Each structure stands twice: as structure tokens, then as C-alpha cells.
Amino acid sequence: MEYRLVDGLFEVLATLEPVADHPTEASEPFYQWVIRRLKNLMRAQGIRITVYGTENLPTTGGAIIAINHTGYYDFIFGGIAGFLRGKRMVRFMAKKEVFDIPIIGHAMRGMKHVSVDRSNGGSSVDEAVERIEDGQLVGIFPESTISRSFELSDFKNGAARIAQQADAPLIPMVIWGSQRLWTKGRKKQLGRNHFPIIIRLGAPIDTSGEPDAVVDKLKASMQELLDESRAEYSRRFGPFEDGEDWLPASMGGSAPTLEEAREIDAKIKAEKKAKRARKLGRDAQTKE
């Protein structure tokens, strides 16, 4: 395959046709300022990013993009395809606790991301639908949290419900390599590491049928994209030693299996719940 480089950073197929900038999103001052800073960060780290399938994104109008989740940089990498498609901006759905963090929360609101209250998921779905109907691209992580196994974990059906209610394209995307930089359960690698990243988008999913059936189709499509990306990653940038902690167990790595990852997450969730209960108990005693 022949590639060309965009902005000295993003590798795309040489046959990919350039498109005109989006009439409004390309000129959003704050989001574009953030993107410039993030591009400088990625250049400083020497990250090599290959992107396929941007033609599956609409140049105008709304859509929901479903993305796998293996690392904290996914919020950065998940927006690259939109940027390459006429400098479109992706509004990510993120838990409301992120919006409560000083400075970060202000930035999230400035980029018009969508706050998700897990105790009231319906309101988040409604807002995402409104954004899409307003012509925006909304990004969602169907697993809702980082997959420690680096496999596709259990999907929630929010992406399907949003696509159906908004009557909008549901576009699958996978990112592979993000977990090498910064993820749960392993040391950060944020220096000049030259790690390669592959981003691959597929054709929109058929959204007819019950939401859970749509989720099955979405997950099958994303698994196919993930398998293709992993194979290319190993072929172009490998071979990699067995036992690498960023590789899933199914590829000879030492990452936990899906079942082991579920057990780890359940244990951590229970510990956090117990900690909150103890804190509430102490607060109640203090008030007495």
C-alpha cells in the first residue's frame, strides 16, 4: 500500500481524496486550539498514526461513532478521523465526574463534549440525540470503561438507541496501540516512544431491529476491524515478544483474559463502594 502524510503526523492511503473543511466546525477556536496542542504532543512523543476508513464519516450532518476503549489516549485518537474529514469535531460522551474536575471540566464544556450521568442515563441519551440532530458527530465507548484485557468487552446498548432515535449513521471505529501509552494496570509510557497507532473505521451499521440486536451487529463489525488492525500491526511493526503486558492473552501477551479482567473490575468496584460507605458513616458520626 502507498500512503501520504497529513500534517506531518497522520498516515492515510495515497488514494484518499481530500475534502473541504466543515463550514463551522473547522473554525471553532477553542477546540481547534486544543487540537494544535495535541498534535504537538503527539509529534513530541514520536507517535506514528495510520488511519483508514475516514470516508465512512459524513462531511456534514450528524452521526454516532462507536469506539473500542483500551487506553486514556483514546479520547485523543478517537477524534483524529473527524479532523481528517474536513476538520470535523467529535463530541465525546464522558462520565460527569470528568466535568467536575477543575480546568479539565471547563475544557470539556468548551469542546462541547457530552456529560454522562450514570445514575440517569436517559438524559445523556437525549442530549446525544439532540447533538446529532443538530448535525454533530458524537463519540461513544460502548464498553463504557477501559478494557483491561484489550479485547472487546461487554457492550452497552446506548450507541444503538442513540442511532435509532436520531435516525443517524452508527459508525464503528477501532484503535489499536493506545494501550502501550497509558492504560489501566501498567506503567505509563509517555516519553518519546515512537509507538505506532492504527485507527480503522468501517461502514455504517444497519440499525434496524431491537437495540440489543444492533449491538450484536456493531460488536461483530468492530471485532472484524480489530482483527484486521491487530494483524497489520504485528505484520508492519512486529514481531513482539511473548508475555508483553500490552498484548492480550489471545495474542501471547500477559494482559488479563476477559474473565480475569471482569473479576478485577468487580473487585475494584466493590472496594470503592465499601470505601464510600465508610466515608458516609464517618460523615454521619461527625454530624452527630
Automatic annotation (TrEMBL):
One Pfam entry name: Acyltransferase
The protein's Enzyme Commission number: 2.3.1.51
Record domain Phospholipid/glycerol acyltransferase: where: 63-178
One GO cellular component term noted in the UniProt record for this chain: plasma membrane
One of the GO biological process terms: phosphatidic acid biosynthetic process
Record key words, sorted: Acyltransferase, Transferase
GO molecular function: 1-acylglycerol-3-phosphate O-acyltransferase activity
Record keyword Transit peptide present: no
Lineage: superkingdom: Bacteria
Coiled-coil intervals, chain numbering: none
SMART domains tied to this protein: PlsC (SM00563)
Top-rank EC class of the record's enzyme: transferase
Keyword Acyltransferase: yes
Entry-linked PANTHER family: 1-ACYL-SN-GLYCEROL-3-PHOSPHATE ACYLTRANSFERASE (PTHR10434), POSSIBLE ACYLTRANSFERASE (PTHR10434:SF55)
Stated name of the protein: Acyltransferase
Lineage: Bacteria, Bacillati, Actinomycetota, Actinomycetes, Mycobacteriales
Gene this chain is encoded by: plsC_2
